[in-house]
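Inputs:
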Amino acid sequence: MNKSNTILYLDGVSVSFDGFRAINNLSLVLDKGEMRAIIGPNGAGKTTMMDIVTGKTRPDEGEVFFDGQVDLTRHDEAEIAMMGIGRKFQKPTVFESHSVEDNLMLALKAPRSIFPALFHRRSAAEARRIDDILGIIRLGDKRDELAANLSHGQKQWLEIGMLLAQDPKLLLVDEPVAGMTDAETEETARLLKDIARDHSVVVVEHDMHFVRELGVKVTCLHEGSVLSEGTLDFVSADERVVEVYLGR
Amino acid sequence: MITQRFFSADRRIAVTIVALLAAAMIVPLLNLAVSPQSAFYIPPYIVALVGKYLCYALLALALDLVWGYCGILSLGHGAFFALGGYAMGMYLMRQIGSRGVYGNPILPDFMVFLNYKELPWFWYGFDHFWFAALMVLAVPGLLSFVFGWFAFRSRVTGVYLSIITQAMTYALLLAFFRNDMGFGGNNGLTDFKDVLGFSVPADATRSALFAASAVTLALAVFVTAAIVRSKYGKLLMAVRDAESRTRFLGWRAENVKLFAFTVSAVMAGIAGALYVPQVGIINPGEFDPANSIEVVIWTAVGGRGTIVGPIIGALLVNAGKSWFTGVLPEFWLFALGGLFVAVTLLLPKGIVGVWDSWRGKTKALRAASLAAEAGADAEVPQPKIVRSAARTPGAWSATGSEPQPAG
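Outputs:
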C-alpha cells in the first residue's frame, strides 16, 4: 500500500501482554488532514493502539509509520511528541498545581531541554499564542485559575489546548467527552471539528451521539483488530458490530 | 489574586534572605565585640551550634528541591552531605602538616598509624583549598549524576527509588568504615588545626564559619527560589504531578529530574563542607541511613514544597534535639519518630503549609465580613491553599496521579 499521503500508517501490528493479544494484526490508515473516530467495546485495544503510536508500548510485530516515512517503533515518547503527535489521555491529565496559563506555557512548542527552560523569558509571540489557545478552548477567563479548580469538562479542554500548544500534526484524543454534560459534549464536538480543519485527528469515543455529531469516518475495533470501517450508519448497520456490542 | 499570592511568597523569601544576612553580621559581632559580661554576648558554643544548624538547614533545603518540588523522596541525601564533608576534612587534615602526633609533614596521623608508606593518589591536591573546594562540589555532583542517570533512565520511581538511595548511603557507610579505604576508618578525620591559615577552634574563625554558613544558606535560598520560579521549576512540579503528561508533551522527564537531583546533591555537599570545620570531625557515622531519614523529618516538619519550610524545620527540630538529648537522652528517638508520625497525620503540609492555609482562611473571613458590612453580595474569595505545593496529603512516595490506561 502506498503510504506517501498518510499521516498514520499501521500495518499488521500485534502486541500481547502475558499471552493476551491486546492488538491482533491491526491495520489502519489515516490520510493527512483526516479526522477519524474509533469505537469499540471495552478491551478492544483502542488505548493500546494509542500507546503504540505514542511510543509507550512497542509492538511485537508490524509496521507503524508517521507522516509516510517515520518509523515510530524506533522512537520513544518524547521524540514522538516532538515530531508532532499529541495525545490526550482517557482521564484528563493536566498539571493541577499550576495555573491554566502555565499549563499551556509548559506545552508550547519550544526547545525541550533544561537550560533554555531555566533561563526562559516569555516572548510576545508566546503570549499571543497562549491567548489564541485560551480563546479556542474557551478558558480565557480562567487563565489564572489553578488547573485543580477546573471542572472535569474544563480540564478536558485544557488538555486539548495543551495538545494544540504543542503544534502537532496529529492529535490522538482518548474519550474527550467522558463525564461531560450534554452542552459540554456539543461544545467539544465543535472544538474538535475546528481543530480538524488544520490537523489530523483520531478520536476514541464510546458516545455514539458525539460520534454522530463529528460526522466522520468510523473505525470499529474488536479484540485488537478492525471489525468494520465506514460511515457511522454503515458501521452501525454492520451485523458483526451489532453482535459485539449487544453480545449475542 | 495570583499576583498577590506571588508577592507574599516573594516577600517571605526576601525576609528569609535578609534575616540570614543580618545574622551573618550580628551574631559574630555579638560574639567578638561584646564583653562576656554583657547580656547581649553570644557565647562561642552557641555560635558553633547554630552554625551547625544552618548547615543542616541547607541540607534540608537541598532535599526539599528534589522531594518537595519533584517528588523524589531521597533517603540518601546524608551521603552527599558526608562526601562534601570528607572533601573538606581531607583539606583540613593536610593543613595539620607536621603538627600531628607523629609529626609526619605529609601523612596524616591515621596513615602513619596504619603503616602507609606514601600518600594515596586520591589525597593529592587536597593541600590546596581551591582543589578541595572543587571536590566539595564535584564528588557529590558526580555521584548523584551517575546514580540519577541510571535510576531515572530506568524509570525507577517512588518507594523503589527511596530504597536504592538508602542502599547507596549504606554502601558508602560500610566502605568508609574500612581502614584500607584511606579515609581514616571509623575514626574518620579529626584533630583539625587550621582552615585557610586561621586556627579552627579560635572564636573569630568560628564566627567567620558561622557567617559563611548563613551567607551560603541565603544564597541557596535565592538560587532555589529562582530555579523554582523559572519555567524549569514549573516543569519540575509538572513532572512531580503528572510525569507521563510531560513525556507526551515532549519533555524528557529523566533529564528534568537528573538536573534537580544533581543541583541538590551539590548543595548538600556544600552543607557538609561547612559543617565539618564547625563540629571538628567527620566520620563514617555521617553516612548512617538514620541521618538521611532525619533530614526527611526536618523537611516534612517545616513543610515540603516550600523554600522556607525546610529551614524552619531543620532549625526547630535540631534545637529540640539539643534540648531533648540534654534532658531525656534515651527518649529522643521515640520523640523523633512520634514527631514524624504526628506531622504525617496532622500536618501533611508542615508548619509553613498550616500557616498558609490559616492565613488564607482568615483573609477570606475578613473579606467576607467586609463584604457583609458593605451590604454587597460581592464575590467572596474562597479560602485556598496559598502555595502550589502538594499532591494528596500523606502520599509520601513519588508515584503521582499517573493515568494508567487500560486496554
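Remarks. The mean pLDDT of chain B is 88. Strands of chain B lie at 189-190, 194-195, 198-199, 281-282.
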